[in-house]
Amino acid sequence: MLDPRQLQTLAAVAETGGFDKAAKKLFLTQSAVSQRIRQLEEHLGQPVLTRTAPAEATEAGRQLLQHYQQLLLMEDQLLQKLNPATRQREFTTLSVGVNADSLATWYVQAVAPVLLKHDLLLDIVVDDQDHTHELMRTGHVIGCVGTRPVPIQGGAQHYLGAMRYLCLATPEFAARYFPNGVNPAALARAPSILFSRKDAVQEQFLRQAAAYEGSFPSFTIPSAQGFVELTRQGLAYCLLPELMLEDDLASGRLIDLFPGQFIDIPLYWHHWRVESRLSQALTEAMLNHCGRYLRQDKADSAGR
After folding, report:
1. From CA 256, how far away is CA 169, in angstroms rounded?
2. Which range is the signal sequence, renumbered to this chain (predicted)?
């Protein structure tokens, strides 16, 4: 039988990236952390962590982290059934992966009623929407919002809806970089914005909307609000979710560089098949909210 303390220690090292940080998190000595990991590896006959900086879970370690996350959910559900009165006022923390644009628009509003009702805290890990499922696969979160349409092994997924993105800039930026219209030469020199170097949505849009497959200069900003502010300041053009726009188009503060063209990004909620009462409540809240506020067609390409 696996020792829960060893699994807890593995999760702490994987989360913090180091034995010393995990020791502080668990209020243990670094030698105690090392001993627990060593005992776990001896029990399994293989390493569960890389001895790198930061330390990362091996394939065996990732499977253990998934198992540990599911154990926590099952334990919480059991305790709620056995003694709901004493558990009622205690906070429970769930780790979830969310893409930045969802977090900046609909996510908090969708889950807020559940957080208030159940004394629930969220440890939100932000990543690009095409890569949040890696957080779940590696055992860091119990669920994630992402673009993967296929469930992760051992998990389930629900379609939430699509977020529509428009390619926008200030009139001044357009006059400076696109005086003769949007063409390949102009796209090659006009600065855009990427969430990270993993972000491929801008390339996808330009390929589909303008048949452009070349390179372009770009800012890298891991912040949805940063995208909006840089664009409003006339420093770049980029794809912005319509849910984040205020009166930008109506007032003329921003203009659409590709009128009538857009890209819809489908979003899915992934979670492990073993769900606690709390994670089920989160799932239901997101489905209900997104059913009203996100586009429910499954378009995933540039369109007119």
Report:
1. 7
2. none
